[in-house]
Amino acid sequence: MEGYQGSYGPLQRFVLGWKLESGKQPVAKQAFVPLVFPAGETCQYDWSYEYVILGGVLQTNKVAHFHLSYSRKMILVAYPRETQEMFLDAHIRSFAYFCGVPKRRIYDNLKTVVDAIFVGKERQFNRRFLTLANHYLFEPVACTPESGWEKGQVENQVGNVREWLFTPTPLIPGFAELNAWLALRCKELAGRKHPEQTGRTVADCFAAEQPLLTPIKA
Q1: Helix, strand, or coil here: 163?
Q2: pLDDT tens figures, 70-119
Q3: Interatomic CA distance for residues 166 and 157, integer angstroms
Q4: Are the beta carbons of 38 and 170 closer than 8 angstroms?
C-alpha cells in the first residue's frame, strides 16, 4: 500500500479479516509450538506500569519483572522510570535474589536491549547491555516482533501481579521499602503450587533449579 506508515502486523490482520468477510478462506493458520524450558536455562523479562502511593503521593512507577521459566520463581524491582541505568541495576538485583544467573534471557525489542533488528532472530544488541550479558555469562534473546507468546509466562505474570500485589494500591514510605516488600511478597508467592508440576510448589522447583544457575561473577 503506497504511503502506508504502519507495521506489517496490522496490515496482515486487516487482510485476514477482509478475506473472512468476503468468503475467502486464508491459506493457512498460524501454529504455535509449546515451549519447554529445562531447569536453569531461561529467564523471561518484562516491564510494567504500576500505581503505588509513595510517601503519601500516588505515583505511576515502572516495575521490572524477572520470571524463571522452569520453576516459575519471580522477582520484581520498582523504579521511578525506565532508564538504562535502572534496567541494568534491576538485572544485578535479580542475580543476587536468585543467587545465580540463568543461561538465557528473553526480552522484547526494548531500546535498552536492542539497537537494530535484522532478519529472523538476528539483532544488534545495545553495547552497555551486551557488556552486562558478557560479564554475567548469559545469552540475550529478543522476541520476534508482535510475538509476545515467546515470553508468555512473564506477560501472564504482569497481569497476575497487578491483581495480587497492586490491588488495592499499596501504601509505602519509599522505594527502599517498596522493593523490600516486593521481594518478601515474591518469596511468599513461591509457596503456591507449580502450574505444571502440581505436586510441588514453585519454591520446591526453584530449590532444584537454583544449583543449575551460573554462579555470580564478582
Answers
A1: helix
A2: 999 999 999 999 999 999 999 999 999 999 999 999 999 999 999 999 98
A3: 13
A4: no
At 31, list the grid cell. 501454529
Spatial CB neighbours of 71, under 8 Å, sequence gap ≥ 6: 39, 194, 202, 205, 206, 208, 209
Q: How far are the Cα atoms of 62, 108, 137 from residue 179, in angstroms, in the given order?
A: 12, 23, 26
Q: What's the predicted TM-score (pTM) here?
A: 0.82
As a residue count, the chain comes to: 218
Hey, what domains does the chain have and what are their CATH numbers? 42-212 (3.30.420.10)
Closest by CA to 215, choosing from 131, 96, 64, is 96
